[in-house]
Amino acid sequence: MRFGEVTPPRTTEEIQQVLDNVAKVVVGKNEAIFMCLVAVVAGGHVLLEDVPGVGKTLLVRALARTLNCHFNRIQFTPDLLPSDVTGTEIYNRETRQFEFRAGPIFAQIVLADEINRTSPRTQSALLEALEEHTVSCDGTTHELPSPFFVLATQNPIEYEGTYALPEAQLDRFLMKLSLGYPTPDKEQDVLRAALSDRGIETVHSVVNPQAVLAWQVAARQVRVEENLLQYIVEIITKTRQHPDVFLGVSPRGGVALAKAARALAWLEGRRYVIPDDIKRLLIPVLSHRLLLHSHAHLNRRDEKAIIEQIARETPVPVAMPRR
């Protein structure tokens, strides 16, 4: 990472400490850790898809401890009900009134573990929380804590007992990431860490939630020039016109890309977004928002390949931003 004059030295030091602290237990996944921090600063959420055992749960637990945020874990199962996630009204015999009993979604960092193992009805309980950061129950709207960050994990949909997430819910995740298997040398580091008991207990708090909120405010001051907004719109439009794409990126996807680019630029120490910020984020921010035609899958074309093609064919703005 490169840091500049945008933030005071203490803030840049804290950011690097956050990354290093999580990397102590999540070995060899620096890019995924950094992208999760981008999502936190942008005020978005992350969908982490991968096979079991690669460290998805460990990543979000380490991030929560590092940021010193109130953390809850929701284990999604086929029999989980929406009220088990959001909470419900409970009758209090002493007061003879119904009182709202908050569910596990009321936390600053929430791990929605194996989200695609529950029914679509329960999955939909997250829609309002992900977008509006509120929960509605019996006509009353309850505010969720700030900052509010959901990291949902899911196994590939080919696995038995999984349900595909609906498009409306996928669209509310800022990014979709994958950890993948570590390289052989990094896997040796994983084994060493496990044998030396360097687990999640060794992760300490680096900052507090107030610092995270300050980062989010600072990132919103980063400029996105008009030519870069036009660049984003051109890419989004081409996803809707591509012959292999049945459903292209929504306007929400374009907003997500711009917000993530601002957060990335701020973390890199700049007051402005550059084209490389946008290009770096195209696949994690846009790939899960595409729905392909069946013939694309038959031709072994996936979302990543289509986005890469569109990026190659879209002229990159060359005008330098104002300093």
From TrEMBL:
Pfam families: AAA_3, AAA_lid_2. Keywords: ATP-binding, Nucleotide-binding. InterPro entries: ATPase_AAA-3, CbbQ/NirQ/NorQ/GpvN, ChlI/MoxR_AAA_lid, P-loop_NTPase. One of its GO terms (molecular function) is ATP hydrolysis activity. It comes from the Bacteria. Residues 45-175 form the ATPase AAA-3 domain. Residues 238-310 form the ChlI/MoxR AAA lid domain. PANTHER family: METHANOL DEHYDROGENASE REGULATOR, MOXR FAMILY PROTEIN. Belongs to the MoxR family. This is AAA family ATPase.
